[in-house]
Amino acid sequence: MEGARVDVRLSSAQGRWVMLTTVLGSAMAMVDATVVNVALPRVGEDLDADLAALQWTVNAYMLTLAGLILLGGALGDRFGRRKVFVVGVVWFAAASLLCGLAPNAGILIAARALQGVGGALLTPGSLALIQASFHPDDRARAVGVWSGLGGVGAAVGPFLGGWLVDGPGWRWVFLLNVPLALVCVPVALRHVPESRDPQARGRFDVLGAGLAALALGLVTYALIEAPDQGPSAVVAGCGAAGVVLGAVFVYVEKRRADPMMPLTLFASRQFTAINAVTLCVYAAFSGFFFLTALQLQVVVGYSALQAGTALLPTTVLMLFLSSKSGELAQRIGPRIPLTVGPLLCAGGTLLMLRVGEGSSYAADVLPAMVVMGAGMVTLVAPLTATVLASVATARAGLASGINNAAARAAGLVAVAALPLLAGMGPEAYRSAAEFGETFRRAMPLCAGALVVGAVIAWGTVRGPRAGACVPQSRVNCPLTAPPLEEPAGEG
């Protein structure tokens, strides 16, 4: 029945179809996000794009995703989670087709922004379908299966992306989503039960979503265009307008009866602290992997396949050890993992300073990736659990969605700001010497953000309060996605 929990059993045929649908849908967004960084040098060469265009290729997707992901979850709760999920999959596939056929960088960037809209519809819907469909006794195991298979997809993503870029071409990174959608949509319509939140009421916060996306877009534009245009009136005006609209967004959210981002959640000191940590660490992660994929190809001379394979250790460590990290954090509390994890990641970031022309993978690249992966293992599962534990159970899904949006926004700003702060010119990625020099200036900035995150965690994060929602640990890969979304109102 729509609006009621269906209580599908995981061992049933329908349960397996639901798992296939949700895994395929989330894999489209996860694998796409993983492989795009590996494809960037070839995209720039093929479309004659400068560094700013490559930044926008990444950020156009993150901009619309970050601005609309909370609205996407609310639409699913109101109009039907399966319906909105299917619309998201179709939208994402159509935008992917446009990306794959893009004749120039401008159309590719526009198509990536459309991809983000589809991602905002399907990403929260994937886990929401599991939460709403499965019997309570099977729900945790279903989430574990979903997370584990998602981790496998994330691990395969860089390798697959590199193979596609070096083989059929970078366009197949996007075109691959079309056959996935052709399988996913019919299965969803035939086998996945529809569900809604019968208590979902009030107006959608379209104004809030629009203000958030516009504010992020203007700030991002100013940061990306500053290296080429300098402190021009347009750049300064866009930056200032973005800051002003950000303030207006906060004002609107404070005044609305049904805000997209209820500011009352930030009355929880723990919730505020964990989101501050999230901003720091995900800004560093996004900047690190964006620039490292370019460094390995532009400076070290790796092919796209070699660069994608070089990134695998971090994802493999996440896949196999995240659940253990979550269990440890439940025993000792989140403060130590959320302090030690960012510090380990900072160490991995600084080890990348040894990677340059003529570097050895075993002696130079691999140690950096292993240390980075160890830090991510230590950090990510406790971060997810602490977000949900910092608020009342009934608001856990909303809290996780806000934290997800914060992580996407942090990555968006980092990819825009790091080249500016490191002094990368528009054509820097075409010169191994110039890019290598600016890369060495950027890595300490990423490490600094991680250290700030560790300091915030040590000074502010405490154990979960009594009665809070403490979920089971989950595999989660920040190369592709921040903390997992849950449907609003579900603990």
UniProtKB/TrEMBL annotation:
Keywords tagged on the record: Antibiotic resistance, Cell membrane, Membrane, Transmembrane, Transmembrane helix, Transport
Major facilitator superfamily (MFS) profile domain segment(s): 18-465
Any Pfam family the entry gives: MFS_1
SUPFAM superfamilies registered for this protein in UniProt: MFS general substrate transporter
Topology of the protein relative to the lipid bilayer: Multi-pass membrane protein
Entry's localization field: Cell membrane
Transmembrane regions: 17-40, 52-72, 84-103, 109-130, 142-164, 170-192, 204-224, 230-252, 273-294, 300-320, 332-353, 365-393, 405-422, 442-461
Signal peptide interval: none
Main localisation: membrane
CDD domains, per database record: MFS_MMR_MDR_like
PANTHER family xref list: EXPORT PROTEIN (PTHR42718:SF42), MAJOR FACILITATOR SUPERFAMILY MULTIDRUG TRANSPORTER MFSC (PTHR42718)
Protein name: MFS transporter
Organism of this sequence: Streptomyces flavidovirens
Lineage: Bacteria, Bacillati, Actinomycetota, Actinomycetes, Kitasatosporales
